[in-house]
Amino acid sequence: MVSIATTTAGSLPRTPALIAANAARPVAADGFTLGTSPEVEALTGKAVADVVERQRQAGITLLGDGEFGKAMSSAVDYGAWWSYSFQRANGLTLSTTDPFTEPAKRSTPGHIVLTSFADRRDWTRFADAYAESIDLGTGATAFPTTTGPLSYRGQEAVAADIRHLKAALRPGEQGFLTAVSPGSAARIGNEYYATEREHLFAWADVLNEEYKAIVDAGLVLQIDDPSLAESWDQINPEPSVADYQEFIQVRVDALNHALEGLPKEQLRLHLCWGSWHGPHTTDIPIADILPVVLGAKVGSLSFEAANARHEHEWTVWREVDIPEELVLVPGVVGHATNVVEHPELVAQRILRYVEAVGPERVIASTDCGLGGRVHRDIAWAKLASLGEGARLAGARLHEH
């Protein structure tokens, strides 16, 4: 029977014990770096072993650590994939401004700036809905500003991530770890570098060390870069597509700089429109950003393909010039609904992409990380449906 590989987009539900342990970690003098202890490390290692086994039982074949090394201190946290990087870089100072409440900024043609989080066009269009019924999940994350030369100091932390995951893998299994992209990391304030480009490429140099450690360990590296699609909504007024493509091209250039010399087959880029639960009516179509995104020097591309705002875009892959050997990693179960997708629907979604590039170049996945976005029991039911849907898709291909 034809086998369809499966994976996740990274974050999986933390156990209450792990969340409590992270919440109890001491905060360093800088205001945002968390301390650790042998007890926390042992708890994390066991939790990673358990989450890998649960993925295995659900039918997931490319296994992750659930992002358990990236501390969450509450059950709802949409930013752990990003904020962990603040603890692994020198040159940062805790900011006195909050990106959710800072004054709104306005762009002009040819000059794009990101506005505040609360000034996103989707959020302002549906202000009453957000205020009344949606938890934005901002948590208590402290956002820093770059105030000095950036350098990497996360060697021990990434080594622990690698150690925990490799200990949980069986011989012959492949695992992956996530790391933030330069474009997403650089969305904090900058008071040191002369230009935005310099700030981006400084982050690229910092993150190259983390990327290289993961790849050298024989693991797949997933680079999380929602900024490529999500930033469109954080620009007021709405820019032209051409201006936006120019804006994200610099971010792809910085990413390619960070990935220089690393083997493409171990590199996966994760693209999404933001994992908060909202209408997303101001999301940019994937067709408008693919001409730039496909220039990233990676071997596979993970993207949202299951939620109601983007599922229809599977037809784009019939029309676009897909780079030779690029592996597609479409989300076939979603993070934005509590409804658990039927395995037959999952199989149908998988086969759409198989028709475009063949079964060996499709890895079925989740839209975004499920940890902190849906209840843990629902998350695991979705992964079981993902595994069963992949089995059904493989059986359909075998029949034909």
TrEMBL record:
Superkingdom of this protein's organism: Bacteria
GO function terms (MF aspect): 5-methyltetrahydropteroyltriglutamate-homocysteine S-methyltransferase activity; zinc ion binding
Keywords, sorted A to Z: Methyltransferase, Transferase
Cited InterPro entries: Met_Synth_C/arc (IPR002629), UROD/MetE-like_sf (IPR038071)
Residue stretches making up the Cobalamin-independent methionine synthase MetE C-terminal/archaeal domain: 198-375
The keyword Transferase is annotated on this UniProt entry: yes
Pfam families linked: Meth_synt_2 (PF01717)
Protein name: 5-methyltetrahydropteroyltriglutamate--homocysteine methyltransferase
Organism: Propionibacterium cyclohexanicum
Lineage: Bacteria, Bacillati, Actinomycetota, Actinomycetes, Propionibacteriales
